[in-house]
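Tokens as discussed.
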């Protein structure tokens, strides 16, 4: 039950953070693709990679903190379901070019940043 509480609190914090980042989606000049969600997924992937590297390398993160940060916060912060819904909206509006750019950037940059975050822990 204690672990579930840590995950829930982390998810709450991550969801609130995502909400504020998603406000970027409301900036008209950036409305071609959902930059707020893209930024959240990239930042969340980087953070998850960093935390994974720290957890693999040290004992700095207890099980509770790993659950709070990695499962809770990162899970609540990143937005794959929102990503899928936004792609559906782009598709329904016949914005196929934007949909493919958004999907490609999201997948490529999320992987790149999780890799960079993980490898950054090797040089710290």
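Sequence:
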């Amino acid at each position: 039950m204690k672990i579930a509480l840590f995950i829930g609190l982390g998810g709450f914090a991550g969801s609130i953070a995502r909400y504020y980042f998603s406000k970027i989606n409301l900036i008209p000049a950036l409305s071609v693709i959902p930059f707020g969600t893209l930024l959240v997924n990239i930042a969340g992937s980087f953070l998850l990679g960093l935390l994974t590297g720290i957890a693999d390398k040290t004992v700095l993160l207890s099980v509770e903190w790993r659950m709070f940060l990695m499962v809770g916060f990162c899970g609540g912060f990143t937005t794959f379901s929102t990503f899928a819904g936004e792609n559906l909206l782009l598709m329904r509006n016949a914005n196929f070019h934007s949909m493919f750019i958004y999907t490609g950037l999201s997948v490529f940059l999320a992987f790149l940043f999780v890799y960079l975050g993980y490898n950054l822990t090797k040089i710290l």
